Structures are given as C-alpha cells and as structure tokens.
Amino acid sequence: MIPDDDPSRSLTVADPDDPGTTYISLVGNTYAMLVTGEQTDGRYCLIDMRVPDGGGPPPHRHDFEEMFTILEGEIEFTFRGEKHTVGAGSTVNIPANAPHNFRNASGAPARMLCMCTPAGQDEYFTRIGDVVAGMDAPPPQLSEDELAERRRRAAELASTYRSEFL
C-alpha cells in the first residue's frame, strides 16, 4: 500500500533560465540549483553544471549516489583510479562511497546534469561557493585569502554533508 498523496508538496518545473534559480560559482565551475532537496523532501537534488576546460573538483567520495548526464562536450571521470572519457548523451552513475572526480580535459566547455540521492549536495555547494548572477556570469575574482577561506570551509563542512576529500 502506498501512502496518500501529500498535497503540501507541489509540482516543480526546473528551468535554468528562471530568474529564481540560484547559480553558484565553485572552483571555476558554475552550478545552477535546478531542483533542491527542499523541493523533494530531501529525496534528491538536480544540479545543472557548466564546467570550463580544465574545471572539475578534486578527488573525493561520499555516501550518496551521484549520477551525471553529459549534455554538451565531454568529461573525463576518474573512478577508483581508472579514467573514462564520456561524451554528450551518455550518463554515468557513481555508487556511494566510491573514490572519484571529474575533469573537463576536452579543450572546450562542457555541461552536464548531476542528480544526487539523497539530497544535500545542493546545500553543500550553496554553503561553500559564491552566488553569481547567472550561468554565464564570470566567477568572482578571489584573493588568495578568500580562496583559502573557501577551501577551509569546504573541508570543515565536508563531513556534515557526508563527503570526504582524498
């Protein structure tokens, strides 16, 4: 038996061009928070990621599932030490707890959707990144001290969001 409908939850239509979308600049990438954990009762989040050439996070792992669908360009995923180059139209699932990272090594910008289940990565990115005006907004010009503060905050909050940098 499935539970009754919860009328307090509403339909969500995600549009990266919606003026209400939050855009986060993080390590040179720009992330649009399309569907947040707040909207899904914590079940999942969906993030539109623009990754410039050379962009991507350091090696890490976390105890939640992460799935990427490449929309434009190509991304190099390193999964348990093995590299896989993935192009537009493909989807990659990263199992919980597995060491991984991704990098755009293509020489051109790339774009992908990232779904995390359960949610939380959306909140983590919002807490450690910088809000920018839109997907095409340049990243903020941060001083060395500001960059160090972002790294410190990311490391300090990682365990709260069930993540670990390797």
Q: Rg from C-alpha positions?
A: 16 Å
Work out the helicity level.
10-25%
**Dominant shape:** globular
**What is the β-strand count?**
12
**Main beta-sheet annotation:** 7 strands, antiparallel
Class from secondary-structure proportions: mainly beta
Describe this structure in words.
The chain is mainly β and 166 residues long. 14% of the residues lie in helices and 39% in strands. It is built from two helices and twelve strands. The protein has helices at residues 121-128, 144-158; strands at 22-26, 29-35, 45-51, 60-62, 65-72, 74-79, 82-87, 91-94, 100-103, 110-117, 130-132, 163-165. It has a seven-stranded antiparallel β-sheet, with helices on one face. The longest helix is centred in the C-terminal third of the chain and has 15 residues, at 144-158. The model has no long low-confidence stretch (mean pLDDT 96).
